[in-house]
Specification:
Blueprint: E1 11-12, E2 26-31, H1 36-50, E3 56-61, H2 63-75, E4 82-85, H3 88-96, H4 104-109, H5 111-115, E5 126-127, E6 130-131, E7 134-136, E8 138-147, H6 148-154, H7 162-174, E9 178-181, H8 188-202, H9 205-211, H10 221-235, H11 252-258, E10 262-268, H12 271-278, E11 288-291, E12 306-309, E13 312-316, H13 322-334, H14 339-347, E14 352-353, H15 368-379, E15 384-386, H16 388-391, H17 394-408, H18 414-422
Parallel strand pairs: 2-3, 9-10, 12-15
Antiparallel strand pairs: 1-3, 4-13, 5-6, 7-13, 8-10, 8-11, 8-12, 8-14
Helix pairs in contact: 1-14, 8-10, 10-18, 17-18
Length: 427
């Protein structure tokens, strides 16, 4: 999922060339954008202060620039010691090219490092039953936001089932309020609806089969049901007029919700902070509501399942020296999600670190209710599926996003969507 990271310029600090650290040191490439960048930098600085003989040099990149730079560096054997990755399909490519270290045995030898983290964070770090990346930082599930004032105006309650959601569409339209906001031009925002509908209709096995490359996986009856339901919602007028010309990067979809022009919005947990900052008293005043995605009547998926971004991930270059690998593993074990790091993700980013028991740190926070909701949704989910555009190989993901645009534009049928995706490249 193309989560906005920030618009900071490409920056670098303390490296001795592409992917390289100073003599005897290790290197890491990180993403820019506040407050995440500041938290990451503080962690690296604290690690270096405590390890004068095993330094870690950081280089900083914008999101899109990084995606190009890391693939070029890996191909030229100039990758950093520690590789930032979203896990899933991209990590799988690295594994199959022999570019990243298998960390399974290291985790077994460091049980506390694994046990402290949400179990749901490890799925996107695992390839063929082996762990190739360290889950870190925070969790960002997709949630259904709603405007409490707008719901009170029409005397409605947030939907707990798909039929209840569909029943709200004419109610809000009659009141001159768009039932749902959507930045459809960005495409990945529309994808979030399908991620949940596939899961609620048929459980995680539906997408698991697709991700595994099983033939005709997109034609699963639960998948066709989900594709049909989303077009039913579009035809009923469920989304704001002109949703396919609205971009998520501009946060215009969020503005529709907090200004009361739309009643609901399905989006990532990361939007909470921007709505709090840009929405006036919408969040501080208690007018923002949030809930899990509705259950689908007759579906076999557990309504407690979550989708989104289970974690961020760091992999270890298989081409690093033994000394560099030792520094990286020390960083993984001592600097990531220690007390100071976990506190920073809560207090500076308003997010939930993937640490079991992190909710004990929420007391006194003005966002305690939100943080507890995200913590419970994420840590208790029977399955936490990674966003499809990260779980699938990049080439497949681009075909997916193009077909989602056509599906939401009603220019192809569910069956045509499934046929197109079944024929898409799987690697």
């Amino acid at each position: 999922m193309a989560v906005p990271i920030g618009a900071s310029a490409l920056a670098a600090c303390g490296t001795a060339g592409p992917g390289q650290a100073g003599s005897g040191g290790a290197s890491i490439w990180y993403l820019t954008g506040q407050p995440q960048e500041g938290i990451r930098k503080d962690g690296v600085d604290a690690f270096n202060a405590a390890h004068p003989n095993g330094q870690l040099a950081a280089t900083w990149f914008q999101n899109d620039a990084y995606k190009t730079k890391i693939r070029t560096a890996l191909g030229a054997n100039q990758a950093p010691t520690i590789i930032w990755t979203w896990g899933g399909g991209g990590l799988r490519d690295y594994v199959r090219a022999g570019q990243v270290e298998d960390l399974t045995d290291w985790f077994a030898q460091s049980p506390g490092v694994k046990d402290m983290r949400f179990a749901t964070a490890f799925g996107a770090a695992t390839v063929d039953g082996r762990i190739y990346a360290v889950p870190c930082e925070n969790v960002s599930p997709i949630v259904l936001y709603y405007n409490k004032q707008v719901f009170a105006k029409v005397g409605a309650q947030p939907p707990t089932t798909w039929n209840e959601l569909m029943a709200l569409v004419p109610v809000f339209n009659a009141a001159g309020i768009a039932p749902l906001s959507l930045g459809g031009q960005s495409r990945w925002t529309s994808m979030m609806w399908l991620e949940y509908l596939f899961d609620r209709a048929g459980g995680p096995a539906v997408f698991d089969a697709i991700a595994a490359g099983e033939p005709d996986g997109w034609s699963n009856p639960a998948a066709i049901d989900g594709l049909t339901k989303i077009q039913d919602l579009i035809r009923a007028g469920g989304f704001v007029n002109g949703f396919q010309s609205i971009t998520a990067d501009s946060n215009a979809d969020q503005a529709l919700l907090y200004t009361g022009k739309a009643a609901m919005m399905l989006h990532g947990a990361w939007t909470y902070g921007s709505m709090k900052e840009d929405g006036g008293d919408f969040v501080p005043g208690g007018n923002l509501g949030y809930t899990a995605f509705p259950a689908v009547e007759g579906g076999t998926g557990d309504p407690a399942n979550a989708v989104g971004n289970p974690s961020s991930y760091l992999a270890l270059s298989s081409r690093a020296t033994d000394e560099q690998k030792a520094i990286a593993k020390d960083y993984f074990a001592t600097a990531l999600l220690n007390d100071a790091d976990a506190d920073a993700w809560i207090t500076k980013a308003g997010s939930v670190p993937i640490v079991n028991g992190a909710n004990s740190k929420f007391a006194g926070s003005p966002d305690a209710g939100w943080l507890q909701f995200v913590y419970d949704l994420s840590s208790k989910a029977p399955t936490f599926a990674q966003s499809w555009d990260q779980a699938l190989p990049p080439a497949t993901a681009e075909v997916l996003l193009n077909n989602i645009e056509q599906l939401f534009g009603l220019s192809i049928t569910p069956e045509q969507f499934a046929a197109n995706m079944n024929a898409a490249p799987s690697s």
